[in-house]
Amino acid sequence: MIRDRILHHSRAFRSAAWQQLLLGCTVASPGIAWLVASYGFGLPTSDPLRDLPLLVLAATAEEIVFRGGLQVALAQRYWGQWRWMPVARLPWLSLTSANLITGVIFALMHLWRHPAPAALAVLPVSLLLGLSFEWSGRLRVPVMLHLWFNVSLWAASFLMRP
User: Fold this and answer.
1) What's residue 37's pLDDT?
2) What distance in Å separates the CA atoms of residue 141 and residue 17, rounded to the nearest whole number?
3) Which residue, among 61, 121, 129, has the nearest Cα to 99 in the 3D structure?
4) Fewest CB within 10 angstroms: 34, 92, 132, 139, which?
C-alpha cells in the first residue's frame, strides 16, 4: 500500500491522525468556503441540477488523476520517502516530496480557470488532500474531502449571489 511506502508509523497512529485530519477539514471547510466566496472566488451557481453533478465529477476525477495517479507514481518512483518541511518536535507532520510536487502541479492546473490568488489558495488545500491520502491510504478520503469543500464553496456562492 502507498501509505506503507510513505509513512513508517504505527497503524494506530495513522488511523487516529487521518481521522482527526478528516474531522478538522470537515468542520473548517464551510467557514473557509464562505471566506473564499466573500472575496469573489466562488463558483457559478446558475443551475443546481447541472452544477452539483459537475462538482462530484470534478472532485472525483481530480483526485483520481492527482492523488491516485501522480502522487502514487512519484512516491513509488523516487520521492515518497524524502521529507520536506519537518515541523519542530513533530517529525511525523511533514510533507513528502511526492505530496508537495503533486500539490504544486494541482494548484498550477487551477490557473486555467481561476485568477492567480485563487489558484495559489488551492495549494494548502491540495497539500491537506495529499496528506489525507497518505495517512489513510484510501483514495476515497481525499475525494470526499474535496467534494465536501466544493459543495461548501458552491453553497456559500449560492447564498451570496445577488
Assistant:
1) 82
2) 13
3) 129
4) 92
